[in-house]
Description:
Blueprint: H1 19-38, E1 50-55, H2 62-68, H3 73-87, E2 98-103, E3 112-118, E4 121-128, E5 131-138, E6 142-151, H4 158-164, H5 169-179, E7 194-204, E8 207-221, E9 224-232, E10 238-241, E11 261-264, E12 267-270, E13 277-280, E14 283-286, E15 292-294, E16 299-307, E17 311-317, E18 322-332, E19 341-342, E20 347-351, E21 361-368, E22 371-373, H6 388-410
Antiparallel strand pairs: 1-2, 2-3, 3-4, 4-5, 6-7, 7-8, 8-9, 9-10, 11-14, 12-13, 14-21, 15-20, 16-17, 16-19, 17-18, 18-20, 18-21, 21-22
Helix pairs in contact: 2-3
The structure holds zinc ion.
Amino acid sequence: MRKSKRNFNKWFTVRVATDIMVMLAFLLAIVAATLVATGPGRRSATYDNFETTVSVQAGDTLARLLSAQGITNSDIHQIAALLRSNHRIRSIRAGSDQLIFVRVAEEAPVHKIILAPSPFRQIQITHTDGAWTTQMVEMERDIRIVRKSGEIRHGDSFYVAGTRAGIPPGILADMFDLLAFEIDFERDVRAGQQFSVMYEEHFIEGERVRNGPVVKISFHARRGHVRMYRFRSPDGKVGYYDENGDGAVKTLKRTPINNARVTSSFGNRRHPVLGFTRAHRGVDFRAAHGTPIPAAGAGTVIVRRFCPSYGNFVRIRHGNGFETLYAHMSRFAPGVNVGTHVRQGQIIGFVGSTGVSTGPHLHYEIIRNGVHVNPMTVKLPAIENLSPANKKIFAEIRDKIDASYEVLSRHPDMFIQL
Length: 418
Ligand SMILES: [Zn+2]
């Protein structure tokens, strides 16, 4: 990859505040998009230098690759020592690293070596005045925000609908993790519902290198229109917040196991084993035997034992008067004992069918101040809320994001730069 200066990194900056700028930006974006699609080859040869690009293969060593380019042993030692001391690079990695050898003429000795350990930085090793020097160069990142939207159809899971909408798997997984704090995917998701996401795409020299974080999520669920925004507060803390600036990440998860099907919900029901009607004090999730069970939130394990009805079960005490309980486990996770402090998402045990149970499932309860509550509807406390001052700043950012979101909804193939 050659690092010539290309200015389409700086095509435009959208100032969402003014419509004229937005319109202008989109005209430019259209021009830019056309340039990308039809412009001159992105890997065109340089005219003042001869470059040889070598992708590191399994079994390659730096010494062997340098030697193959005619670099002397003493130079190889010098270069290896510089990489070690200045950049803590001791070896090259097959499959990901690339080396570019630069000469002034085809037969000339190598005077510059570029090692690209990541798309975002490269190390330039240059020979001047009889000695080698190295320099780390951060590549200029071009961040574009794109919007994808879709609709739930009959028989769809959110994953199916999201994939059809062209949302990349990693972004879809992040959406699921965030939405799971708010939405019961079993009961809140119905055909006809619209959803959309805005996320970053990171480009270097016009090439997409990877996807960045989710910027906004919108989901028209049954319980209402769920919106989440990414926000970096002035102290550098990054989080997700709802439209009011309240933390979107909650202390507890409604569904500890992602994508598990609810087979029995909270409330009165006829017990499948005992045969009589009694209150179901939790929610049952169907999952395969042995599926790991993550803690719904951070807390301290207060019970971990067997009992005839719950089988192997764990009870965790969280902050704010909340406790959670996980029953019918096949076994406990190693290291999880009474008194163990667990993180949100830490595996505490595995799905089974111990105790009074008809088949492998997780029975999950949330207890608030000693009272069983419905995990699917209880209002859960946010892990973190914004200070009043930061809420004000958040509101401005949210409005900018919303304005971009509107513009992108009318131009789905465009992108913006905030
Ligand atoms: Zn149950």
